[in-house]
């Protein structure tokens, strides 16, 4: 009899724990939002959710065009599900930090927009639920996107958390009028870009062929990646293995030194983003690395703009730029997680994502929309989609925050002081390791 009671208690506990993994039961510092399926996260047979009785939602998102889009989505969601939705403008870069205090206090948005590089911190803090429809999204999304919004949960399992809205990356922008005047075609290799720059500068004193920020690791990682380097081991999840002082990083440093010596003999302090933007927007620069988010600003400046994938390195590979993913996340402190999950899914349907692209210019993350004629005919957007095939998701583990300062210091020492690459990068990696260690104490 005692044994029967013992087994009954165990079975009851298992049932309760399984129920808690569905959206709908509040958990403290937990991120589970799985389908109740035997394989623990494959949602192929996940039940369709229904909003909680009396549910009402608050959504956090960017303002301006993105905010107008979100308000439109909210209206349509309310019409379909009879769930009132209010919108609050919270910049997507600020939302994760704000949720650290507002979430536990019950003041956070039920669904909020955030960049994917905050996922690791948000899961560690237990701020977000995982994606209830993960398998469906993994089928829909282009390569790298599901990986970008995934992280290890509290059990050490890799889970997908976000509902992706848009992707972004960097490609090579150029002034079409200047290239035409010089009789150039867009450079296909970095060596060709350097040679074009020399010729352009010789004929046009006071101009530059190509400018970059020497200490800006966001852009300059592309060369390390193109030489098949990495930041962290195990697919950018192991902060104990830092690859930024290995052979690919040394080759990238050599390329930066070549750019400095042959076409850009300025100190880092004279190569700020403002200086580079001014030269390009005033028609005094052939090429610049540009993010997909910056195209409209160039057009507004009156530049006859062209965009191409990053010119190849001497190894024949396209530089590997960072992939960024803007997504929606479900607040784990939400009183209405089912309704919130439904909203995130509704907002990231292909229908809504196409409207997001049309209204804001954000690049869609799904395979189906890459075949959309409106996108395929956009000559300024498609090169970023092509470049996305040569990207790696920016690491989203908390240790990534420690990388920027160390690499800025290392690249600046190489560029400004002509320090030998290996010792400079060794120092940078040591600085990164020390910063990571201080995080974990």
Automatic annotation (TrEMBL):
Subcellular locations according to the entry: Cell membrane
SUPFAM superfamilies on file: Periplasmic binding protein-like II (SSF53850)
Signal peptide stretch: 1-18
Membrane topology: Lipid-anchor
GO biological process, one term: maltose transport
Chain segments carrying region Disordered: 26-52
A GO term, aspect molecular function: carbohydrate transmembrane transporter activity
Extent of Low complexity compositional bias: 34-43
Keyword line: Cell membrane, Lipoprotein, Membrane, Signal, Sugar transport, Transport
Pfam families: SBP_bac_8
GO cellular component: ATP-binding cassette (ABC) transporter complex, substrate-binding subunit-containing
Main localization, broad class: membrane
Similarity remark: Belongs to the bacterial solute-binding protein 1 family.
Protein name: Maltodextrin-binding protein
Classification of source organism: Bacteria, Bacillati, Bacillota, Bacilli, Bacillales
